[in-house]
Amino acid sequence: MINQFRNLNPINLLILFAYTFFMRMAIFADLPSSLQFEFLEPYTKFFIQIPLQNTFSPAGNVFFAGIIIFGQAILFNRVVNNHGLLSKPGYLPALLYVTASSLFMPFLILSPTLICNFLMIWIMDKFLKMGKASNAIMTMFDVGMIIAIGTLIYFPFIVMLAMLWFTLLLYRSFSWREWISGLVGFLTIFFFVGVYYYWNDNLSMFYKIWLPLTNKFPSVFKINYNDYLVLVPVAVMIVLATLQLRENFFRSFISTRKAFQMLFFMFLISIVSFYTKPDFRLYHFLLCVPPGAVLLAYYFSNAKKRWFYESLFLVLVFAIQYFLFV
């Protein structure tokens, strides 16, 4: 499977499509009686009404979620290949994206984070282009607006604002215009949101949008470790990928080094942003899939012993299927 996807063979697109729905067998075998799809945050529904609650049947919900994942995998694969993050272009990024997007049952249904991953991939592409740009002001402004749109869909996406400055530290020498342009782009969207609230005499509600930012980061976590055993093979792959990346780090292009540092920060920020939503669901961690899948693809792109990396991937696939079914 891994060796097949190391190449840019068009037949891999058909295999990937079949694989996407193969990884969803468990939920199709035991569909819930109903599935709710909340597309926008409550403060966004005040001025944008999209009645999606009863639009999809449970089967339709899972089917369209699979189609979205497949489409995102293709876009993600193109971004990774265009920026030369792996040793050679192939469909490994798409394969690992679909695999990582199937780890848990909540990942298999329509959710706001699933929609936000289109924006995550777009932001990744923008950031990866930054090193080659002579001026990053407009790029930062655009990314700020993208983050604002993502925040209208799913509030924890606002924490991606930190990526604006992490990325500038990595890629650019200091320019105050670049450092504020992303924030200006973000505030531009919310300025119009605030104006709408003001026109409708609900400015006090507009202030409440930002209250989750004052939440304290939780010091105690209630975790059922049996639910997360599927992450064991993922953790092994991440460790192996990190060792591989460390071995090749100073032999890589400077742009590649900076790209992986940027993706590492994006991965961490995606994880910790859950604190801004006290009632967050497991699907929140779908935001970790784009940066995480790059690291997984990097390992399989550079692994040498075929029997080992093919076996490791099969162990992951079987572990995912087992825990989804049980």
From TrEMBL:
Cross-referenced Pfam families: DUF6427 (PF19992)
Query: Any stretches that span the bilayer, and where are they?
Result: 12-29, 62-80, 92-123, 143-167, 179-199, 228-246, 258-276, 282-300, 307-325
Q: What is this protein called?
A: Beta-carotene 15,15'-monooxygenase
**InterPro entries, alphabetized:** DUF6427
Q: Does the keyword Kinase apply?
A: no
Say if the entry is tagged with keyword Secreted: no
Q: Which UniProt keywords apply?
A: Membrane, Monooxygenase, Oxidoreductase, Transmembrane, Transmembrane helix
MF terms in GO: monooxygenase activity
Q: Which domain of life is it from?
A: Bacteria
Which species is this UniProt entry from?
Pedobacter ginsengisoli
